[in-house]
Amino acid sequence: MKPFVSLCLTTPTDFEGWNIRWDREKQFLIFQKTQSQRNCTTIKPLAMEQVYDFISRLFEANDWPPRWFCGTWSEFHGWLYVLSDVAIWLAYFVIPAIIIFFIQKRRNIPFLPVFWLFGAFIILCGSTHLIDAVMFWWPGYRLSALLRLLTALVSLATAFALIRDLPKLVEEQPNDLLREYELEKQLKKYEGEIEELRKQLALKNNE
User: Fold this and answer.
1) Number of Cβ within a 10 Å radius of residue 135
2) Contact between 139 and 67 (Cβ < 8 Å)
3) I need a surface site. Which of 88, 92, 126, 141 has the fewest CB within 10 A?
4) What three-state secondary structure class fits 14?
C-alpha cells in the first residue's frame, strides 16, 4: 500500500459510523459515512508522488481541453489574446538579444551578473506569454506551471541582486565610466593598428 497523508475529516479522531474501502482503480482509500454519502473524502498520495507524477507527465496535455473550448471565445477575442501574447514574447526575446550584443561590445562591464539575470528574467517572462498563446491549441498546463516557477525564482534572484548592488551602483561615478569607455575605445583602436602592422610585417618577410 502507498504512503498517505493525514485525513481532512470533520472529526478525524472518530471513525465510528464510517465505511472504509479500497478503490483499486483510483488507488485510494475511501472513507464514507454510513448514513449519508454527502461527507465522502479520499486520502491523497504524498506530495512527492504528486511531484513525480507532475514531472513524468510534464509534456502531457490530455487532462484539459484546449483553451479555445474553455468558455465562450469569439474569434476576435481569442486571436486578440493569442497575437498579443506572441507580440509580447517577441519583444521579450529582442530585449535580451540587445543586452547580449551590448555585453559583447563592452569589456569589464560592472555588475555583469545583474545583466545576465535581467536577460534570463526577460526570456522566461516571454516564455510564459508564448505558452499562454500555445495553450489555445495545446493545453500544456504542467509545462506552463514549471515555466512560471522558474520565472518566479529568477525574478526573486534578480530583485535580490538589484537590492544588493544598488548601493554600489549609486556610488559609481558617471565620469569614471565615461573615461573607462574612452580608454576601451582607444585600446581597441591600438589593437587594430598593431594587428595591421603584424600583417604588413608578415608580408614583407614572405617577400
Assistant:
1) 21
2) yes
3) 141
4) coil
Answer yes or no: are the C-beta atoms of 151 and 92 closer than 8 Å. Answer: no
Name residues whose C-beta falls within 8 Å of residue 141's C-beta, 6 or more positions apart in sequence: 61, 63, 64, 135
Q: Residue count of the chain, please give it.
A: 207
Q: Tell me, yes or no, if the pTM score tops 0.70.
A: no
User: Across residues 126-149, what is the average pLDDT?
Assistant: 94
- What type of residue is 194? I
Say what the pLDDT of residue 132 is. Answer: 94
Residue type, 63: D
Among candidate residues 127, 57, 140, the one with its CA nearest the CA of residue 92: 127
Helix (H, G, I), strand (E, B), or coil: what is residue 48? Answer: helix
Which distant-in-sequence residues (6+ apart) come within 8 Å of 136 by Cβ? 66, 67, 68, 78, 81, 82
Residue partners of 181: CB distance under 8 A and separation at least 6: 106
Query: Looking at 9-142, which runs of residues are DSSP E strands?
Result: 18-23, 28-33, 40-42
Please name the helix (run of DSSP H) or strand (run of DSSP E) that holds residue 144, with its range, or none.
Answer: helix 141-171
Q: By the 8 A CB rule, do 100 and 119 touch? A: yes
Tens-place pLDDT, residues 17-49: 555 565 566 555 555 555 544 444 444 556 788
Nearest to 155 by CA among 123, 112, 109, 110: 123
SS3 of 25-36: CCCEEEEEECCC
Any idea what DSSP says for residue 23?
Answer: E
